[in-house]
Amino acid sequence: MTHGETERHGAPPDGTALFRCIEGSFRSIVGGELVPLERDDDSRRRWLYERAPFGVLAHESGSDLIRQWRDVT
After folding, report:
1. Which of 4, 20, 40, 70 could crosslink 13 through cysteines, CB 3.0-4.6 Å?
2. What is the pTM of this model?
3. Distance of alpha carbon 1 from alpha carbon 23, whole angstroms
4. Cα torsion for 33, 37, 44, 9, to the nearest 10°?
5. Residue 56: helix, strand or coil by DSSP?
């Protein structure tokens, strides 16, 4: 596990910068919001990790594809 991931459900990985990167990438590619909440970063990060009705997996771009984020889905 990397970047503060945890096996405990209900505890999103620490990493506001990583969350913002995922959110910004989604916005630039899709043109919309990934998280349908107008709240602080922590609230949106927790929603993405705990309640999103879809899965998110983010990894580095290197050849070994080290996982950076995964949600409880």
Report:
1. 4
2. 0.64
3. 21
4. -110
5. coil
Tokens, residue 3: 């970047």
What is the domain range of residue 58?
16-70
Query: pLDDT tens digits, residue range 39-63?
Result: 998 899 889 888 889 888 776 677 7
| Residue 62, helix vs strand vs coil | coil
Distance CA 63, CA 50 (A): 29
Give me the residue label for tokens 């927790």: 46
Is 26 within the bounds of a domain?
A: yes
Residue 2 resides in a domain: no
25 within some domain: yes
Could you give the number of structural domains in the chain? 1
